Amino acid sequence: MSVFDGIPFFAGVDAARAESFGRQCVRKRYSEGELVLDFDDPSTDVYFIVSGDVRVLVRTAAGKEMILGDFGAGKFFGEMAAIDGAKRSANVTALTNAELLLVPPAVFKEIVLHSSEISERLLRLLTARVRELNVRLFERSVLDLRHRLYSELLRMSTPRKGHDGQAIVSPPPFQHDLAARIGCRREQVSRELGAMAEEGLAEKVRGGLVLLRPSVLEKRVKDAMNAAE
Asked: What are 61-104's pLDDT values in tens digits?
């Protein structure tokens, strides 16, 4: 059994190479709320999530934070430092008890460069992240608070089982987390969520925030984007 087993990114790694590389990697457990990485850390390992969830955020010099995303099992982070050797550009904290596989940069690059399949996998993942960041940057530049909130809730949601045309954000998001995602104050988020509820666009239920008419939110975001062009 290899330390890479169960991690999608490493699918296709030669068994002999996986055994050799695996001896250079370390599995580490983190408790809920524990710091995994901080800004400007000099470490260059790549972290692969075996189990649990982590949160990635950036912080301004003034201390303002923006959540970039939450990653679960099968995802990874820290690849930029492994590639360019620069200090860490984000903070990562365990949202739940988590187990991570720490892969040294030399091992990570050797695996990627040795396999065209894995190399393409990395390129596609990095491209997807750049596209998502570009979308969020554009939204921050042209959308007002209300439409940024709509867009973020749509991104966080999944179709609600048994309710055609509805979506749900589960578990329900904390208002201060939403504020950190879209760059505003918690009170502003609270006010907008209240307005959505009054308009029949959102409803709090046990275990989640239901988007009752996500198609309406999508159209409003699209119209706001078009109006800004």
From this structure: 667 788 989 999 999 999 999 999 999 989 999 999 999 999 99
Inter-CA distances, 199 with 82, 160, 174, 175, 208, Å: 48, 19, 21, 19, 18
- Grouping H, G, I as helix, E, B as strand and the rest as coil, residue 88 is coil
Position 137, amino acid: L
Degrees, nearest 5: CA angle 157-144-155: 15
Residue 160 contacts residue 210 (beta carbons within 8 Å): yes
The identity of residue 180, as a single letter, is A
Please tell me the pTM assigned to this model.
0.85
Using alpha carbons only, give the angle 55, 60, 64 rounded to the nearest 5 degrees.
Answer: 70
Cβ atoms < 10 Å from Cβ of 19: 14
CA distance 186 to 67: 14
